[in-house]
Design goal:
The two termini are 30 Å apart. The chain has one domain (9-335): Ribokinase (UDP-N-acetylmuramoyl-L-alanine:D-glutamate ligase, 3-Layer(aba) Sandwich), CATH 3.40.1190. A 9-stranded mixed β-sheet has the order 5-4-1-8-9-10-11-12-13, sandwiched between helices. Helices cover 37% and strands 23% of the residues. The chain has helices at 40-50, 67-76, 125-129, 138-141, 145-160, 188-210, 223-229, 234-244, 286-299, 304-321, 331-335; strands at 9-14, 18-22, 34-38, 55-62, 79-87, 92-97, 105-110, 131-137, 164-168, 216-220, 249-253, 259-263, 266-270. Helix 2 (67-76) links the parallel strand 4 (55-62) and strand 5 (79-87). The chain is of the alpha/beta class. Helix 1 (40-50) packs across helix 9 and helix 9 (286-299) runs antiparallel to helix 10.
Length: 336
């Protein structure tokens, strides 16, 4: 595992800022929503920051009515916004509800345009040199070719400087292949199938373009690993990754069953603690909370196996507390 020398920031996150509207029950029927910032990458940053890590964010916030709200909420979580730019356009908005307790319900109402201003020019040698770990996910890669170049540039610079790189394929096929130029002239059903196949091809291509630069990879099993590799069992997924990058820390998240971690030729399983009787578990963005706390632990000198145990505890806490970044635990919450 790469040595983390003294730097100003434990974690550098490159990702999109979204506005989240959360409700209890059915999104369509609800008349009351709780507003907060969200998005998978933002939750990764907030999870690490609330545990005590110094976190810097590379992103873009549009000058729409949500501009000040997003910026202030990032700062309130202890996230450094010195590399967040303001731009024209509008910020993405999504709705989430708890209609189905065992799974997430999302309605992406407004995909936003601010993310298209996250460009390679935002990535500099000084920015990368000032952090211990660089993190991004395919949620940003899915936006445009420019955001894919941004992620690749950051990962390449970090890798060349022996700085740890972490990545989550975070496969969300509805985010891929949204450009009209990719539409096929056929029925709605065939068009959806075409976009799904094309989106999966693009997601796989993005994964393979960066995998050789990555030190920590987060995957979900069985759906995501099956779609990307044709493999369901975590042990097989880890072996598959090691065949292509023997030094990688492979973290396979298995939902309510916890996770399986492979590192340095060793594989260990970590069961997810279960909520107490009567406690409801909300899975919205729990995986991102896991990622942020895992990377916080790595930056603080934990082994990957120790980091997995901490991340499982954070994921449980987040799931019980519900949506919103304020439901992420602090270091004091985890230690009590």
């Amino acid at each position: 595992m790469k040595t983390a020398y003294n730097r100003n920031f434990n974690l550098l996150v490159i990702g999109e800022c979204l506005v989240e509207f959360e409700c209890d029950g059915n999104i369509i029927e609800s008349e009351t929503f709780r507003k907060d910032i969200g998005g998978a990458d933002i939750v990764v940053a907030a999870a690490a920051a609330r545990l005590g890590s110094k976190v810097q964010l590379v992103s873009a916030i549009a000058r729409d009515p949500f501009h000040s709200f997003i910026h202030e909420r990032l700062i309130s979580q202890g996230i450094d916004t010195g590399s967040v730019v303001s731009c024209q356009g509008y910020n993405g908005v999504y709705f989430t509800g708890s209609r189905y307790p065992e799974q997430r319900e999302y309605l992406a109402h407004h995909p936003g345009t601010a993310n298209r201003f996250i460009a390679p020019s935002l990535i500099s040698d000084e920015l990368i040199d000032n952090c211990k770990i660089v993190y991004a996910s395919s949620e940003l890669q899915s936006v445009s070719r420019e955001t894919r170049r941004t992620v690749f540039k950051a990962f390449h610079l970090a890798h060349s400087r022996n700085i740890m790189v972490a990545y989550d394929p975070n496969l969300r096929l509805m985010r891929w292949s949204l450009d009209e130029e990719h539409e096929c002239q056929c029925s709605d059903t065939k068009r959806r199938l075409h976009k799904t196949r094309q989106g999966l091809d693009e997601a796989r291509e993005c994964l393979w373009n960066v995998l050789s630069l990555v030190d920590v990879v987060f995957l979900s099993s069985p759906e995501e690993s099956m779609a990307l590799f044709g493999l369901e069992r975590p042990f097989e997924v880890i072996g598959y990754l090691w065949d292509r990058n023997s030094n990688i820390i492979a973290v396979v998240k298995t939902g309510a069953n916890g996770c399986v971690v492979g590192y340095d030729g060793k594989i260990e399983s970590f069961l997810q603690p279960t909520p107490h009787a009567g406690e409801r578990f909300t899975p919205t963005l729990v995986g991102s909370a896991f990622n942020g706390s895992f990377l916080h632990a790595i930056a603080c000198g934990y082994s990957p196996f120790e980091a997995a145990a901490l991340a499982n505890s954070v994921a449980l806490y987040k799931g019980i507390k519900g949506g919103g970044i304020d439901s992420l635990p602090t270091e004091a919450d985890i230690n009590t």
